[in-house]
Amino acid sequence: MGKDEFFNDLAESIKDGIQRNYRNLVFIQSKDSYLKMKSVLKLYLSIKDNVSIVYGFHPWIKEAKDRMRELREELEDYRFEDVDYSNAEWYMGNTYDVVIMDMTDNFQPNNVGRMVELCRGGGLIIIYTDNLKENKLFKNSIMRDGKVLSFYEDRFLRKLSEHEGIFIINGDVFQSRTFTGQVESPPERKVESKNAPSEIHELCKTVDQDKALEGLYFIMSSGKRSISITAPRGRGKSAVVGLFLASLSSEDRKKPLKVYVTSPSIAGASQIFEFMVKGLENLGVEYSVKKNSNVISSVNTESMKVSYIPPDAAYSEEGDILVVDEAAALGIAYIDMISRTWTKTIMVTTVHGYEGSSKAFSKYLRKLADNRKIKLKNISMDYPLRYAKGDPVEKWLYDALLLDAEPELPEGDLSILSYEEIPKEELFTDDSKLRQAYGIMVTAHYRNNPDDLMIMADGVHHIIRVLSSSSYYVSVAQLSEEGGMDDDKVELAINGGIFDGDLIPDRVIKHVRIKEFGKLHGWRVVRIATAQEIQDKGLGSEMLRMIIEEAEDNGLDWVGSSFMGDPKVLRFWIKNGFIPVHVSPKRNEKLGDFPVVVVKPISEKAKKIVSIAATVLKEKLLNTLHDVYFNMNPEIARLLINGTGAHKEIDINPIYLDKVLAFVKGTSPYESSADGIHMLVLKYFWDSKRKWSIMPDEEEFLIAKVIQGKPWGNVSAVLSSSRSQVTEGIYTSVAEMLNRYYGLTIDSPLGVMISQHGDLNERMHLD
Q1: Are strands 558-564 and 521-530 parallel, antiparallel or unpaired?
Q2: Which residues bind acetyl-CoA (predicted)?
């Protein structure tokens, strides 16, 4: 195709897009891509008036900044905003006519996903780069020993050619595919029953938003309730929550309603606050706001106080409603904890989004609601706000980034399975296989993003294994080759340096201080997943067994994994013989969990190091759960402590034992005997040779109260138990431990005598 024909096609397609409210995209790969980008932009500006432009780039790279500044000067008569890719989420509520992505210095799928969604119907997206595969920041971070693959970029380029509404300039070669499909007009808006004021419904743009607004009033009825709002990006789900909060502000109350909003970042919650303010202004309700980093962090009216709090702060705050934006990104362990302490929660999450798939999350939420006797309402939203339904660029985006990967339901005899490696060339050139394999990962795990797929595709040290039944994959694992570090890298790790790759050796070296582990070779299981419909049948464990066998055959020293602390996931690894060796001292700010590292040692040297690491971890937890890990879920703490298998003999002097006995006999309150109880509990958890155990819930009571030092009310809330259940559980478990270890019972006499117990000074190590 000639250049003139290309630009004629593009011009006609832009005009058609403006008329039918869909978007077009131009991809430019050329040494003079910047100049070609300006030619494309000039064409659009000649067709449409009053154009708004957003420009994505990396501001710390001088050449990128120079290009942006030059373009800004040339477009001084237009609304022009520049966006640092790392801050793109701060702009997710904005809409522009033209979105320009400078990918000269970096190509990163997450950036593409976020920036494309800023473009409105009738708009144009321009991606320009010199070469998609060479000298890119994110790609270089995937490199191992100077090697990196390009399977992801090859597929990305292929998808550009396959879809309509996409125009490609590759050097001097021009290719256009105008959109010939149909788009859907929005259905007529009719609101049957109005709980919300008409002034609020005026701000809704779709029928879905109207219905969601009315549906949110479900939360205001009595009892423990939760609402789950799921939708693809750009459907206005966060906005409608903000409008709902504004509508509640119009109601008179004796006592102001207290609402907290949390999300992985304050930027992620910005839409809720912005639309609450819009709603209040439409209602004529007086309000005041506070801002953090130029983003609204709280809105107060006479009848309501709405504030943003970080995810971990939601554990201890008290209020009437908790709104969790991008709930799937925060994970099921987090949702489990807040569902214990909050009576009313609104969960907002993205279907096929960049923060994770909501399918696994929604399934979990239904199960949680049943177990906790929570009344749950699901609200889904489908019609896009910014552009017409059927938009060709959205279709391309979902295909290119595999945002809508859904595996087929496995069929046939699951007792006959094949364990095999999938060559990446085969996987990334066969969409049916890729969608099946990656779809299992996405739908089984709630935390995935487009960057993950590129790492899997392009990392030479990332390998893929599957369990298959006939023509279907049933389980998939992504493995990363780690270890074999040179001396310089080991020294960098021990001295606190940061580098890409070798995650497990790095954590062991930094926190256990044993440098030899860096020399060992192992596999880190990045992801392991089984198709949702056939989970809990032992297929994941079978997959793991085969991975370990292969690792042994290959002479590896260990197999391990790193993941966000979640009870179900942690139980899976411990059940399969993996030992916890590290827990991050810092909770992941965005995801709300403590990252955990587990290892299954194979070689003798690995077994020795892992044994030491497990002992160090157990000591660290028991010594710092009251401080560093105060907000750790007691169930996670219990699994980690018991999972280490580390043993140590603990002696308790007679005075402290007598204090415990006095507590058991009821002559001393808990607070007066707490020091003795603490020592007895430490003895119990350090004793990995005992053939008996107290109940798991009793262990969690002891961890929360005795080891973490939580107030009684907090223990009850966190563990969803009444005060009487907690006190009874602690009493029963302490009495059992005292009897089993020392033969002391409620009938044993109180008091310590020197003649009975020997030299107390010596036994207490006193001078």
Answers
A1: parallel
A2: 528-530
Nearest to 89 by CA among 294, 271, 230: 271
Beta strands in 103-234 (DSSP E): 119-129, 166-170, 173-177, 225-231
Specify the DSSP class assigned to residue 706.
Answer: I
The CATH classification number of 3-177 equals 3.40.50.11040
Q: Is the pLDDT of residue 766 over 60?
A: no
The answer to the question of whether 528 is labelled as a binding residue is yes
Fold exhibited by the domain 418-432+442-614: Aminopeptidase (3.40.630)
Q: Check whether 429 is labelled as a binding-site residue.
A: no
Confirm or deny that 209 is annotated as ligand binding. yes
Q: How many degrees, rounded to 5, is the angle at CA 42 between CA 41 and CA 44?
A: 65
The full DSSP string for 337-396 is: HHHHH-SEEEEEEETT-SS--SHHHHHHHHHHHHHHT-EEEEEE--S-SSS-BT-HHHHH
Which part of the chain has CATH 3.40.50.11040?
A: 3-177
**Strand arrangement, sheet containing 79-84:** 79-84, 52-57, 96-102, 119-129, 24-29, 166-170, 173-177
Within 10 A of 456 (CB to CB), how many other CB atoms are there? 25
State how far the Cα of 709 lies from the Cα of 703, in Å rounded to an integer. 8
Query: Contact, 707 vs 637, CB < 8 A?
Result: yes
Number of Cβ within 10 Å of residue 62's Cβ equals 8
At 368 the pLDDT is 74
CA distance 450 to 482: 23
In whole angstroms, give the CA distance from residue 419 to residue 475.
Answer: 9
Residue in the block written with tokens 């990252």: 595
Sign of the C-alpha dihedral computed for residues 731, 732, 733 and 739 taken in this order: positive
| 529 labeled binding residue | yes
Let me know: does 351 contact 381? Beta carbons within 8 Å. no
Name the CA dihedral angle for 590, 596, 602, 603, rounded to a multiple of 10 degrees. Answer: 100
* Residue 212 assigned ligand-binding role: no
Gap between the terminal Cα atoms of the chain: 94
**Nearest residue to 24 via CA among 308, 388, 328, 423:** 388
What does the block give as tokens for 387?
A: 């552009």
Model confidence band, residue 65 (pLDDT cutoffs 50, 70, 90): very high
| Residue range(s) in the chain whose domain bears CATH number 3.40.630.30 | 418-432+442-614
pLDDT digits (tens, 9 = 90+) for 101-117: 999 999 999 999 999 99
CB atoms within 10 A of CB 577: 14
Contacts of 415 (CB under 8 A, 6+ apart): none
Tell me the whole-structure pTM to 2 decimals. 0.87
- Distance of CA 716 to CAs 322, 712, 723, Å? 19, 6, 6
Give me 546's structure tokens.
């085969």
**What is the domain class of 198-380 according to CATH?**
alpha beta
For the chain, give percent helix, strand, coil, nearest 5: 45, 20, 35
**CATH 3.40.50.300 spans which residues of the chain?**
198-380
Q: How confident is the model at residue 767 (pLDDT cuts 50, 70, 90)?
A: very low
Paired strand residues for 168:
27, 175
